[in-house]
Write a structure and sequence with these properties.
Blueprint lengths: L2 E3 L5 E3 L3 E2 L5 H14 L3 E3 L7 H11 L7 E6 L6 H15 L6 E4 L6 H13 L6 E4 L3 H10 L6 E5 L7 H10 L2 E5 L13 H10 L3 H11 L3 E2 L6 H8 L8 H8 L14 H13 L2
Helix pairs in contact: 1-2, 1-9, 2-3, 3-4, 5-6, 7-8
Length: about 280
């Protein structure tokens, strides 16, 4: 495993296991399999509805809690200083742990400044070890970094070979924020797993398309959290630390960047506004 040091001093694995769109019961089995396979970072969220399964799997795994870097996210309906703080405590109860290693604000909407103050309070009390954000564009990220008492240490955003987020990555670097990728396989878009270039490069190294894509992102300084419910694929996804891409291969992969979202464009009002109206009704 390779690691990165966050700006607050925390040591974070460069590769972890994500549990988006996995139900609570299946999550317990999958996280157990992931930990047995060697993963030591697990990424969940309040909105996923599977925190209890994550916690149960960690408790039953035989892996010490100190060895697991646990990432969680506060959902937008829990934004507000007190509401955010209280939601962190509820997440701790569901996870069955006394701390979360990294807690993120899941979306860059509503009163995220007040929510951030709730995270700062949780960090001061030791409920969370590090705090960050998810899906924040460069402007909102800079806004939070400038006006918050404590700047976020991570920004988790859609990132894959077809949207490499280069301008956002540069901004994160300037602000001292670690870039973390969700959807590193582009959720299969653009025939990801049969891409000719990635296939060709993979054959040269005895690796698969997904392994090449993960290695490229990690080499670019991006933390990745691939997801699979199959043990064989989990093992394949973590097996990316025994080969190196050549400079020529990295240059060729860079040409795949289309410069736009393929999954969930958080900056498109036509896409986001109807969804936000539904969220508001639930608040």
């Amino acid at each position: 495993m390779e690691y990165t040091n966050l700006s607050d001093g925390a040591r974070m694995p460069m590769l972890g296991y994500g549990v988006f769109q996995i139900d609570d019961a299946t999550t317990e089995r999958c996280v157990g399999d992931a930990l047995a396979t060697g993963y030591r970072m697990i990424d969940t969220a309040q909105a996923y509805g599977n925190e209890r399964g994550v916690g149960a799997a960690i408790a039953a795994s035989g892996v010490g809690r100190a060895e697991v870097f646990l990432v969680d996210k506060v959902w937008i309906t829990n934004y507000g200083e007190d509401r955010t703080y209280d939601s962190v405590r509820r997440s701790l109860d569901l996870l069955g742990t006394d701390h979360i290693d990294l807690m993120l604000l899941h979306q860059p909407y509503a009163d995220y400044h007040a929510a951030w103050r709730g995270l700062e309070r949780a960090r001061e009390e030791g409920l969370v070890r590090a705090i960050g954000v998810s899906n924040f564009d460069p402007v909102r990220l800079a806004d939070l970094c400038v006006f918050a008492q404590e700047a976020p240490v991570v920004n988790q955003v859609e990132t894959h070979v077809f949207w490499q987020q280069r301008p956002a990555h540069a901004t994160m670097g300037k602000l001292g924020v670690q870039h973390m990728a969700w959807g590193p396989f582009a959720e299969g878009a653009n025939n990801f797993f049969s891409n000719p270039l990635l296939t060709q490069i993979g054959r040269a190294h005895g690796k698969g398309v997904g392994q090449v894509a993960l290695r490229y992102l990690i080499d670019s300084g991006v933390v990745v959290i691939p997801k699979s419910t199959h043990v064989s694929r989990m093992a394949e996804n973590i097996d990316v630390f025994d080969f190196d891409l050549t400079e020529e291969e990295r240059v060729r992969i860079a040409t795949l960047d289309g410069g736009r979202s393929l999954i969930w464009d958080h900056s498109d009002p036509d896409f986001i506004t109807p969804w936000l109206r539904q969220v508001r009704k639930s608040m």
